[in-house]
Write a structure and sequence with these properties.
- With about 290 residues, the protein is of the alpha/beta class.
- The protein folds into two domains: about 230 residues, Phosphoenolpyruvate-binding domains (TIM Barrel, Alpha-Beta Barrel); about 50 residues, no CATH class.
- It contains twelve helices and ten strands.
- The strands form two sheets. Strands 7-6-5-4-3-2-1-8 form an eight-stranded parallel sheet.
- The longest helix is centred in the middle third of the chain and has 18 residues.
Length: about 290
C-alpha cells in the first residue's frame, strides 16, 4: 500500500468516490476525523456502506480506523464495521500486546456474528512513547497484525517535539521499521498535515522509503500521486533487481553464494531485496516488457 487515503466516517458521500482515486487503499476514519456527537452516526454510515449491495467492487484495500480501546465506542465500532468487504481494521493507541490480542478476539467475535469469511487484519498505530518502546511486542502480539503505522502528530505534539525536526522523524521511522521487520510485517509512514506543502510531503515520503517503509497516509487527494511516486521503485532499481535475480539463477547451480553484479557484491540479503523489488514492480505492472 503505497498510498492510503483518509476519509472521515461522517462523510459517506465520499466513500465510493475515494475508491475511484489512484490510492492503493482507502482508510475510513471513525476516530479523530469524527467529533464526539457524530460517532454513532458515522459508525452506522460505515456499516451501511460496507453492507450496501451496490457498493463498487474494487481491488483497493478497505481500512477502517476505529476508536481506541479505552473509549466507549470501540466495541460498538468493531461490531458494526467488521463486515464482508473490510480488509483491515486500523487500531489507534494500542496500549500493550494483551490489548492487541483482546482486539483480535473482538474482531473474531464480530466475524462470526456478521458472516465474515475472510479474516480481517490489524494495522497498529504507533503514536505514544509507550507504544514506540513496545513496538516489536505489539507487532508480534497476534497473527492478524499486518503492519505498524507511525502517528507522529500524537507522538510529537504532546511532547513539544518539532514535527519538522528531521532527525526526530528519522529515529521514529527507523525504530518502527525495525520493530515491524522483527515481526516480518510492513511499516507505514503516517500523515503529513500541511496539505499545501507538496515538497515537504514528498521529501518525507522519500525518506520513509529509504528507511524501508512501504507507504504513507494521505489526508488529501493531492497527496496520492506524491505517495505513489515516492514508493514506486525507480526504473534503475527495477533494472538492477532484474539483473540480480537473473544472475542469481545462473550461479545457483554452481553453489556459489556471492557474486558481482555491475561491480556490486551480491549475496542472500541483496538477492532478497532484489526479489522484493521485482515482486512489487510486477504487482504495479511496471516491469519492462522482457
Amino acid at each position: 500500500m503505497r498510498s492510503k487515503l483518509f476519509v472521515p466516517g461522517s462523510r459517506p458521500e465520499l466513500f465510493s468516490k475515494a475508491l475511484d482515486s489512484e490510492a492503493d487503499a482507502i482508510s475510513i476514519d471513525l476516530e479523530d476525523a469524527v467529533v464526539e456527537d457524530r460517532k454513532a452516526e458515522a459508525r452506522t454510515a460505515v456499516s451501511n456502506w460496507l453492507q450496501h449491495t451496490q457498493r463498487p467492487t474494487t481491488d483497493k484495500r478497505v481500512i477502517v480506523r476505529v476508536n481506541a480501546m479505552d473509549t466507549s465506542h470501540f466495541a460498538q465500532d468493531v461490531a458494526a464495521v467488521v463486515r464482508p468487504g473490510l480488509d483491515i481494521l486500523n487500531l489507534p493507541k494500542p496500549d500493550s500486546a494483551d490489548a492487541v490480542r483482546e482486539a483480535a478476539q473482538a474482531i473474531a467475535r464480530a466475524e462470526k456474528a456478521n458472516g465474515v469469511m475472510q479474516p480481517v487484519r490489524i494495522l497498529l498505530n504507533i503514536e505514544s512513547p509507550k507504544a514506540l518502546r513496545q513496538a516489536a511486542a505489539l507487532a508480534q502480539a497476534d497473527p492478524r497484525v499486518m503492519g505498524l503505522q507511525v502517528g507522529l502528530g500524537d507522538l510529537f505534539e504532546p511532547l513539544g517535539i518539532d514535527r519538522r525536526e528531521v532527525a526526530a522523524v528519522q529515529q521514529v521511522l527507523l525504530a518502527v521499521r525495525m520493530a515491524a521487520g522483527e515481526a516480518g510485517i510492513d511499516a507505514y509512514d503516517g500523515a503529513f498535515a500541511n496539505v499545501r506543502d507538496a515538497d515537504g510531503f514528498l521529501a518525507e515520503a522519500q525518506m520513509a522509503r529509504r528507511l524501508g517503509l512501504s507507504g504513507k497516509s494521505c489526508i488529501h487527494p493531492s497527496q496520492i500521486a506524491l505517495a505513489n511516486q515516492a514508493f514506486r521503485p525507480t526504473d534503475a532499481e527495477i533494472s538492477h533487481a532484474i539483473k540480480v535475480v537473473e544472475t542469481a539463477a545462473q550461479y545457483k547451480a554452481s553453489g556459489q553464494g556471492a557474486y558481482l553484479v555491475d561491480g556490486h557484491m551480491i549475496d542472500a540479503p541483496f538477492l532478497l531485496r532484489a526479489q522484493n523489488i521485482v515482486s512489487l514492480a510486477r504487482r504495479l505492472s511496471i516491469l519492462p516488457p522482457h
